Predict the structure.
Amino acid sequence: VAHSVFTIVADVKPESLPVLERVLDEIKRADGNDPRLPFSALGGLHFASFVIFEEEDKPPLLVFEHVVDVSIKAHLRALVDRCDAGIDAVYENCVGYPTQATPIEKLRYLRKRVRRPQLHHIGSAYRSVRSIKQDADLRERMEKAVDGLVASNGASKALTIWRHLQQTFAEDAKRPREPKLLELLKNWSLLALVLVAACALVKLLWSHPAYLFAATTLAFTVDGAAIGILVGWPAKGWTWKTALAILLPGLAIGAFLGVWPSRPAAALWTGAMVLGVLLLAGLARLLSATAVKESRGNWRLVPFVLLAVGASWAVLLALGAGRWGITLWGAIAFWSALIVIAALAFPALVFVSTLRRLPFSTLILLLAAVGGALALAYHLAARYWLGGGTPWFAVVFFVLVLVVGAGALWVHKLPVPSAGNIRPTNEHMRILTAQEDEGIQNHMSVMVRLRSDFPGRAWLQSSYFHILNRVLYRTVLPDVDKSRLFGIPTVHFAHWTVLEEGRHMFLSNYDFSWGAYLDDFGFKLGNGLQLVWGQSEGSPGTSKLESFKAFARAKAAPYRVWYRAYPGLTALQIRNNEQLRLGLASRANEKTSSQLLRQLAGLEEA
Amino acid sequence: VISPPPAWEDIQGLVASAYAHLDAAAYVLLRIDDARATRAWLGKNAARMTTAAERPGIEELANFRKRGTANVNVAFSFSGLQALLHPLGLAECDSFQRPFVEGISGSEHRRRILGDTGASCPQGWDWGGGNERRVDVLLTVFATEASAVDSTANAILAESGMTVVKKLDALSRMLANDREHFGFVDGISQPILKGTPAAERARDSRHLTELGEFVLGYLDEEKQPTSGPALDGFPAFGRNGSYLVFRQLRQDVKAFWDFVDAQTRTAVGALDSAAAENLAEKMVGRCRDGTPLVPDVSVDNNEFDFKNDRYGFGCPLGSHVRRANPRRSIALARTPEDKPNRHRVLRRTRLYGRKPADLRSDDGEERGLLFLVLNANIERQFEFVNQNWINNSGFAGVQDERDPLVGRRDDGPNLFSVQGGPARVRKGPLEEFVTVKGGEYFFLPGIAALKYLASPNGRAS
């Protein structure tokens, strides 16, 4: 099952705003069953909402959010077919809507205003509304059955209870798993393609040192500059630190990759100079370092990173026609480079964000250990497979540069743009909170404006969102991190959309309170948040969580209508319920059945 | 960044001490009739308020008892401050926390998250939370015996320009035997303020908490300075102050024990008192004597966490103790980085009403808790605990459950699961064993701020 997450964005005729508000209010009060807009009759609709964003000297913006498990095309058609009256009632208050139009014209109107998010998170990946509801119903019946079994004192063993459940609910166990192979391929294919292309490029340029130097230096410098702009560096003016942080890694990596194959000695000297500067920068930073937050690491991703390294090595091996040394060299270079990119570009990457929170000394030790291991591996490879000839210390040196470079960058604190102290008014907070915590799920809708100091900012932002979406959100999150948003298990669907005129919109359907949600984000993803929100006008940065929360509140708009297909379920329960159903079909033993029964009582996830 | 040294002599004593050495207490809820008289009264009595500097050390406790001193503190609701500081500018209003300005029953949302619905709805309260039940000032009086409390209160309140809305007498602690009315030892877990002698004695405690979590003007757990309300004439008005939450919680002791009895009857309908006792302890999350239910607890009965009891087989996931302070264990969000001590409150709760002679019979008397807590951020502390833990129906992955003692009840199944092998046992529907009878948010100013309130420059007098 593939989800479509999108919005329909339309300008409201200012004079029609009161009428529109009244219509939406009626739809809201019908609770999804308004005859004009019967959300519950639309197949596969998980969440839907209407939000009106109002800005000074702009027409109000009507945003119609959809999260469905059918294609956009099919959903829009169903919308026009079944909700004709509702669509008319809402959109005749919007600019350019053709009244008395044919369904085809209406469809065209809507399609033209569809905006897909650049970045979106899906908490219940591959799950359809139907199946989520069936699972919840099944769980309810299982709970009752277990109540009966426990009350009758008929069972003292988990396996006995579970076997009984398996018999009672044999029909439910037969429900086919939701197909996900196609979706999996679609999600992972682009990442795989990028990896292969990168490896091929390294291989191709290997015999042309000058190009390699130019290409890598350029790539890293551009990357550094882009990130700098994203997190808001130009806001404070260009300091020597900023320039160094962008230029040095580019130069260092470029110099090594470019010069090394032909003139190792020159590479060493270049490296030594860069290293010296980096060391000094790192040392200065270390001496002035404030306490780095302590935290437990998230090591579950390590096997996957290793797997990826191995896979790329295999690709390079194939490309390099069996020359182990060259391919190993390429793999080291590529993956070290990727780590540096990650450090610079994707602080939100789970693995890296974990490292980022480690104490500085541990971090350096860790990176040195990894570097040392790689160097040793290369040394052995060079000696036994290439017939010697490569001075091993040079390799160690190369790795050290990367290590210290990465370290120095890591501790280079992201500058916080000078912020206006934007706070919500009490009246605004009253409106927002009035519609919160009515059930266990909540909705959040925020719109900010990107700063206009740099013309390419919106483009840059959406490009990075696209990359993040492809290499992370659509691959790692659903499949590796069990649909958690960087370990946060409470988000059903969240999406970020960069709209016209530098508007940046965030919509989220999540569990529990707004405060807990923002705390989760702030504590887990401080740097990621900075990357996403740092470039918006008035953002106070994320280092002071409470100021950031006030900013987010001030920029939020209340929903006018919010439909949710399964209002009583948390994202965690949806996953637990699926586990229970799959468990029915599995071959159970005492251990697995007591594990499954624990899930009934509310499993506390590891 | 280092927190400034605590100015104990400017902080009201309630922050530093629960006055445990003073057995008797009264909470006097007042309404200001004549602001001018009240200001004059404050001018006379501001210095009379007990400060944290007078906090007795353990060795002095015996002397304190003999001396029979009465300790007095005073706090103001937003309407109280408005009366004294009239007119309050918009920016001045905004510098107070929103929950305080709106009041404890100020919005439908707040009533939802605090569970003030149904029988706990503010319409049915005896005091607080509304126009006709408005409370402006809270005066707390602690002394060795009830007569001293009464005489002190009467003496102090002479010519105050205020009328008494309600005077709540707390049950003497000696009589209460440290157990609340349901029969459990209460008030075990408290944050330990950094910078106090207690913190010196418990250097490794998990309960060590920055002063800024409770007193404005100091660093909080995130090492950020907590800033308080600012007045035009006195920008440091908030310094050394604290937000105070006061609620009168009625306990229905008979209903609680009737419930556990009914839920644990044997197959033939006979009473099973051991099972009933066990269920009651599971609901609370501690034994009646306060012993934690988690396995492998060391000597100290409060330095445990739930690591050894991940699945709640000892202390149920949804039990009161686990919800009120999950000690880093919740799956609500897997966030080890979230410091648990960002959501702590200083508890200064006492009991009211006579102890029940028999837990299972209804003597027609009202009894319960005078729930009083202090925090620096009402939303992040008191309200967060109620919203995300106590009243969260999906807490730690449970379904359709809220706190079995104090949680909100609705038209859902209102269940409580006791985890254990081979499968959990669900109990319910739970009733409202605890109902709210009154409540308000107050501000407990520092001594300097009290003096300013007595003569606010530039205000209409």
Summary: DSSP finds 15 helices and 13 strands in chain B.
